[in-house]
Amino acid sequence: MGEIVLFGYVQVRKPELKIKDYDTYQAFYCGLCSTLWNNYGALGSVTLTYDMTFLVVLLSSVYDLKEERRDLRCIVHPAKKRKHISTKASDYASHMNIILTYYHFIDDVNDEGSKFAFAESKIYTPAFKKAIKRYPKKAKQIEKCLTKLSALEKKNATIKELSDCFGKLMMVLSGLRHLFLFHFHLPA
User: How many Cα atoms sit within 13 Å of 170 on the Cβ side?
Assistant: First the structure.
């Protein structure tokens, strides 16, 4: 796992979006945050990423999931209600986010001997156990992908090998095998 950062790949390019599209994305972001809070408390909410928000938007769109729209105040924005959009994908992504967060800390412990990451991994262990109890097969697939990714890093694999492995992780997370295997059928 080493140099691979599991989070932070997805960035919102606000100037490129129409205002209504940005507002919708932000509502999904807030919806995922409140789902993380409901499932895991404050420990869940602080793991919020645009990466998992993208997963929620993608899965909600592909599967045309029913949206729950609410206007809520939260601990981060107590003064004014903000729009929240949640779907079944929000719940799923909250659990995947906890699994990835835990493995991120374990990776930092293994690669850098980080005492901070060790403490964080201990703090997140109950949440991790809750998530893997809900999705045991997915958790094993994620662990397998991350173990392979770590091995590739250690042997100084090419960017293509690393990208292929990370793409398989994204395929596992999304369940959208056909989208992530598409690149194998493109002409060279």
Answer: 22
